[in-house]
Amino acid sequence: MASNGTETEEPTVPLLNHSSSTLTESECDDFNDKKNLKWRVFIESKKLWHIVGPAIFGRIASYSMFLITQAFAGHLGDLELAAISISTNVIVGFDFGLLLGMASALETLCGQAFGAKNYKMMGIYLQRSWIVLFICCILVLPLFLFATPVLKLLGEPSDIAELSGMVSLCFIPLHFSLAFQFPLQRFLQSQLKTAVIAWVSLGALVVHVLVSWLIVYKLQLGVIGTALSLNFSWWLIVFGLFLYCVCGGCPLSWTGFSIEAFSGLWEFVKLSAASGVMLCLENWYYRILIVMTGNLKNAEIAVDALSI
Fold this sequence. Notes:
By secondary structure, the protein is mostly helical. Helix content is 84%, strand content 0%. The termini are far apart.
């Protein structure tokens, strides 16, 4: 200590305090980081489920229509349930996987256009997807027209093959609805408009239950009427989503029909075909199981059990 009393030899005290203060701040930062990490995970999860939650519900609702149709067909008899199961899981299932995979190309293109704020191209991509998938539906149409001989060739019993072929003919409107519904769903998902898909699917599901009950128990139209009710419900989803898009739901991305949709189709076909084949291969494993079950004894019961 200096003799004048004005200077003190305490240079280490502030340094010690500074060092201690720095360590405390570091510990506080670590604690806050861990606490903030949990909060950020919660916030991001909430944002994620806000998007994917309605999308999951919409997919479950639309797929449940097939289950409801099979359930009502089961009240008609074992043969009717087997025919509906073969038609929905094998004939429509092959078509479903192919078109769903091809529509996935639109999700990639629309996602890129949305990120680049090139909203006009999203509507054009949507129309190109409609054109390509509609042409694909025409090419796949013989599978529905000649379902009976195809199923017999695969070893299905004659009674199941005959009725399944008849039901498959009734599913032709459903077949073409997929070419419009899947692109509309991808188009809206790319813009984070998944809630409208969920609401439209929910409405169609409720209508489907009511129509199926009316057809089976009141009008007694049998397995053909049950199949036609599925067509009605799936086209209801198409019209609901389409009306949302054209009636102001997507003012930036939907500006009306354009002749530009007919340009660049070949590049879109190549991208769509690769996606379609990939997803189709994933779906065929289960379809092959159902087809092979038709070769067992008591094929009706075996097909019914496996499809359920």
